[in-house]
Amino acid sequence: MPVQLLKIVNGKPETPLPSHLQKEDLKHLQEGFDHTNKYFQGIVILHYPLTKLSDGRDFFKLVLQDMNNSCSRNDSINICIYGKMAEDCARVVRHGDTFVVAGFKLEKSPTVGEDGRHGCHLEVSEEAGSAIYIYTKPRTTGASETASMSVAPKYAYTSLNCLKDGTIVNLYGVVKFFKPPYVSKGTDYCSVVTLVDPSNVKLTCTLFSGNLDSLPKIYKVGDIVRFHRIKIREYNGQMQGITSVGFASLTFDGTVGAPVVPRTSSKVYTFMDEEQKTVEELRVWAASNLSISGPAAKLSGVQPMLFFDLTCQLVGKAKVDGSSFLLKVWDGTKCPYPTWKVPVEARDLEGEKILLHQLRNLTVDVLVYDNHVQLAKSLKIGSFLRIYSIHTKQASAVDEDVSHIEFHLHGGTCYGRGIGVLPESNPDVKELKAFLESVELADSQNMESMSSVELDGTFNSVTDLESHLQRCQQLPVTVLTDHQDLNNTELKTILNSTAPQQYRIRAKLRTYKPQKLYQSIKLHCSKCKSLQEVPDGDGFDFILQGSAITAPNVELQNTSWYDSVMWTTQDEKQRKIVIHFVKHDEMLQQPEDTLLMIEGGTLKEVWKLTKIFKCVIPVRSTEDDLELLDLSAPFLLQGNIKYYGCKQCSTPKPIKSLSSIAAEQRPSWEPTEIAQVLGIELLQYVFIMKFTLIDGTGALNAYLFDYEKFFQIPASEILSNNFLQQKMQMTMNTLCPPGRKLDDLPWLECFIKSYNVRDGMKHQVYYQIFDTTVAEDVV
DNA sequence: TTAGGATTTG
User: Fold this and answer.
1) Which residue intervals define the domain Telomeric single stranded DNA binding POT1/Cdc13 in the entry (predicted)?
2) Ranges assigned E (strand) in A344-461
3) Which nucleotide has the shortest C1'-to-CA distance from A721?
4) Straight-line distance from CA A408 to C1' B10, in Å?
5) DSSP annotation of A378
6) If 0-12 CB within 10 Å is exposed, 13-18 middle and 19+ buried, where does residue A228 land?
7) Distance in Å, residue A616 CA to nucleotide B9 C1'
């Protein structure tokens, strides 16, 4: 009998405790001590209502005071009782009872920071072989009832619009963004979570823990969390949450109507009707106030050049090299494009060989890089994963005629990139498991070939592809914007003619370069006709760092046409930053209309300013005026676009020339106008591509030189806009579908001109596409 | 301490 009531007669227990048990002092209740055959005895000073845990077990918590030291909170300890013993104790225990517990397990107390009691608590259950003896005082009515009134801990929750710097609070929120836990550069795992609540205020929390299990178990945007003891700090002018001692979290599925079951590693938590109500209310609020993405992407629905989250099962894994690791996964559907296979040594491949072979046409190789390698290595074969922000990249190997799709999980954690392990209880996993089992069933019935499986998995995408294909075969995928009355000329005729001439052609796009579309963007100077690569961010950063060495000239601050603000950074570098806000009519403008100049800023600071202000011009002080930085850096930033000047053709003028624009009635701050007054020859972003065109009579290479017209996408915006990159990739996939035979390629109608290029003794005819655009229903 | 959301270009 695990819970025994022992009567006290004449101040002594009527029945003695079993003789093998020895009394343990409170000070010996420490980890590392052997507590076998020991018991602890104390007075019940507090007990909580009986509650149910998420696994359905009863839970009862009480507090015992050490009888030798009866005045200090330090000398009290929490007792957590599980299962039937919890129910039994709850029924009989009274405030003031002498309580004896044996066969307990010692655990670190998660509430020590809050209740100031003993650093450990005792875990007690029948399964653990615990025993409880309660010395009962004579029961009376009235007084003792009052004394044993239960005290439920009451938590107050702060709304996200009421957070104050330096406080520790409890809060609820709907997950708007999250990074699944990853290995930080310090000693802990880190997870970043952005919450919103009905006050419409966002809070980004940075959570650290050495124990992966104690970080919130968030699986998707829209999940609801409850954080206890999160510390609020101000960072960059915004409130930020960070883990504090005793941080604890519960996570709930955000689906309206789903069971309200908390996901937590904590065995002890309060969760009652009131909390359930809060979760349900937040679900309803989120459903109409947050955009939560629809059904997850499947392998059968992947598009090249996209980032997506994949819910899948791990079939195999292998080391590749120091900075990358291979995961072979499947989700039961088939990718409609040829996929790459990462070459690895057979002995390095972990996983069931037979299954790997059976599923060889359904698994895809995901190569994970850098910081994800450590986590990937630790994954168990057969586990269910959600891989966040996988990149599908189109590429072709040297010896391949057609391109394939690659799956990369790049390094870093931007956009929540990472790997999460989903428990089998997760509804998405349950659904996936059921689907995978049906696929495996089909497989075992048809061991000879995978065809029926493949068809099942891809039926939708095959029909999609077919209809798309038909459209492509019927109509040309590019159209002329002029010269419609001209007749087509065969490529063979063009190749045998002298240049320069102009032709209308009908041809297929066999291949194009560069395959990496971002490499097609160049900067062009319309004055000297030079082309150059778009500088990368590192070069800009370097120039900014170099310019920060120049001390700001105070005499150049606060002039008639701009107001200046200067401050020194708090870090050890003590950097001086000056921002000059250009005025209009002696007034500062709204941020979205404001041009500002910055001295001494970092790349990150400049970038942040571009999000808020219309134009940002990085400058440095000279003796008599501000001046532009080296022209390898952008001289102007507007939104996401960096504007560069031609080093050869520009003659930079003093910055005060800008005041003429500021004095205009409505300064529009057009880059061309700014460039002009500053003596800068503006470089323009262009697409430069080489199309290999064929028409059955011959093949020729034609260059595409396009600012915007062909793709109907401004070349200036493509590098900073991922959506446009995807759009452009999809356009190219329609013009030249990956993995397609020659006969199945669509027709292009183009206008091309031939021209002569003489380089010393060498003479060559080149072709350029012009007055052509991608058909309206393709873009 | 770590990271502090805002895709790589392997």
Assistant:
1) 157-287
2) 349-350, 364-369, 384-395, 404-409, 418-422
3) B7
4) 9
5) T
6) buried
7) 27
